[in-house]
Amino acid sequence: MRDIAPGDELTIDWATTDDGDYTLRCACGSPHCRGIVTGQDWTKPELQAKYRGWFCWFQRKIDAQARFAVIPEAHLLLVQGDRVVLLRRQNTGYEDGKYSLIAGHVDGGETARAAMSREALEEAGLVIDPADLSLCHVMHRRAEHERVSFFFTAGRWHGTLRNMEPDKCSDLSWFELSALPSNMVPYVRAALERSRQGIAYSEFGW
Fold first, then answer.
1. Do 80 and 53 sit in the same domain of this protein?
2. Do 201 and 136 contact (CB within 8 A), yes or no?
3. Which of 153, 166, 141, 154 shows the shortest CA–CA distance to 192?
4. Phi and psi at residue 56, in whole multiples of 5°?
5. pTM summary value
6. pLDDT, mean of residues 39-44
7. Are strands 79-80 and 36-38 parallel, antiparallel or unpaired?
C-alpha cells in the first residue's frame, strides 16, 4: 500500500470487500489484474499479505485463520504396583540423557488416545487398546512452543516391554515411584507428581 499520488486512477479490489459465491472474468486490461475475480479471493494468502489490515468486515475471519496453534502430546504413565516405566532419551536433540515417559506428538487425524496407543507400540512394543487408556492429567506448558500434554494411565496392555527405538532411547525400565531417577525431564517429573496427588490440570514453564 502507498499514498495516492497526483494523477493516480483510483479503483478498488473486490477482494477487500466481497465474501460471496461468484466468479467473473475481468477485461480491464491492467497487467496487475488477476483476470478471473471471485467472491472468495480474500482467502488467497498472497492477497491477505498484500492487503493486510485493509479488508472489510471479514478481517476477523482472516485473523482467526492466523491464530496460533498449540502442539498436542500424549504421555503414558504406565504404572504397575509401585513402579512406573521410564525411558532415557538420546540423540533426539531435546533433554538427552534424561528420563521421560513413553510419549509422542498427536498427529493430525487421530485422537489423543489413538496417538498414545500408537506411541506405546512404536516405542515399547506394547499393544494398548485406546479404550483402556484413562486421562489422569493435562499440562499446558511453554517451551520453545506452547504445548498441551495429555497424560494417560493404562488399565491393561499386551506384550513385553521392549526398547523399540534404541537409537533414540538408551534405557527403558521400570522404576520405583519412591526412588525416581534424579535426571528426569523437569515437566515430566512435575506432571507425574501432580497426577499422583490427584491434580487434573497444571501449567509449567510460564
1. no
2. no
3. 153
4. -80, -145
5. 0.69
6. 84
7. unpaired
User: Measured between alpha carbons, how far is 77 from 134 in angstroms, rounded to an integer?
Assistant: 10
Q: Can you tell me the distance from the alpha carbon of 44 to that of 10, in angstroms, rounded to the nearest whole number? A: 23
- Assess whether 110 and 159 both reside in one domain: yes
Cβ atoms 71, 148 nearer than 8 A: yes
Measured CA to CA, the distance from residue 14 to residue 9 in angstroms comes to: 16
Over residues 86-145, the pLDDT tens digits come to 999 999 989 999 999 999 999 888 999 999 999 999 999 999 999 999 999 999 999 878
C-alpha cell at position 20 = 460471496
CA 47 to mean position of chain CA atoms? 27
Task: Locate 146 and state its grid cell.
Answer: 506452547
159 belongs to a structural domain: yes
Q: Model confidence over 156-198: pLDDT tens digits?
A: 999 999 999 999 999 999 999 999 999 999 999 999 999 999 9
Give the domain range for residue 38: 14-64
Q: Which of these, 143, 146, 111, 141, lies nearest to 129 by C-alpha position?
A: 111
